[in-house]
Amino acid sequence: MEISEVTVRVLLIFFPGIICAMILDSLTVHREWKLWRFALTSFVLGLVCYIATFAVWQLVVPTQVTIVESLLQAKEGKEAPAVAEIVAATLVSIVLAFVLSCASNRKVLHRVAQRLRVTRKFGHLDVWDWMLNNTDIPEWVVVRDLDTGLAYEGWVRTFSDTADANELFLRDVRVLNNETGEEIDSLWGLYVARPREKLTIEFSGLTMAPRSREDREAESSNGEDKHGQGSDSEGRAES
């Protein structure tokens, strides 16, 4: 199978977008991308990289972007691929990939949307991902193995990305009897992998979460309504 010159030019031109998408795919946790989504993501990221490169070059050395001309004139062979622009855009794509990965892993978009009350989605793949990545939840846990009747108390050192694998690595582990709480053994580290229906995870270090403002306002209004109803009934009783 022969690869035409146009195909080579297209691959070179979209190379920055492909690199950016590959880095983003490696550094973020998400469901597996289908081919069409990877291609579309690469295309969009490539455009962003070239726009950023063009903006920087216009500020430093005003010039014309030759990417489009290189693609349109590929059949005539009048112009070689714009190697300098491709290299510059590829460097920009690496920086862009790290920035987007940081924003994705910190769920910046969902946090802003939650602040604006646009959505209540937390942005993680599942509760497992949210729970073990949440810095407000202590890492000291008690894992109860319902199949063996044992409990493992220790620090969560690392964990699988999703609950599909359901893997945990604990440090400074105390092995306990699940019924009596008697300590059976102590270990420096323990790898746990069980089906999700055979495990429960307890976070003993959690405290009561403060009520939201909406809950307090609702409780206050309910209290006022009850107080008003009580006053009315008292007035009717007196009359």
Features:
239 residues; alpha+beta; SH3 type barrels; 2 domains; five-stranded antiparallel sheet; 8 helices; 18% strand; disordered C terminus
Return the string of H and E elements: HHHHHHHEEEEEH
Strand content: 15-25%
Secondary-structure-based class equals alpha+beta
Strand arrangement, major sheet: 4-3-2-1-5
What composes the largest sheet?
5 strands, antiparallel
Distance between the termini: 100 Å
Textual characterization of the structure:
By secondary structure, the protein is of the alpha+beta class. The protein folds into two domains: 5-110, no CATH class; 127-202, SH3 type barrels (Roll). The protein is 49% helix and 18% strand. It has helices at residues 5-13, 15-27, 35-60, 67-72, 83-105, 108-115, 127-133, 213-238; strands at 140-145, 150-159, 167-177, 183-193, 199-202. Strands 4-3-2-1-5 form a five-stranded antiparallel sheet, with no helix packed on it. A hairpin with a 5-residue loop joins strand 3 and strand 4 (183-193). Helix 2 (15-27) packs across helix 3 and helix 3 packs across helix 5. The longest helix has 26 residues, at 35-60. It is elongated, with a radius of gyration of 29 Å. The termini are far apart.
Quick structural gist:
The chain has 239 residues and is α+β, with helices and mostly antiparallel strands. It has helices at 5-13, 15-27, 35-60, 67-72, 83-105, 108-115, 127-133, 213-238, and strands at 140-145, 150-159, 167-177, 183-193, 199-202.
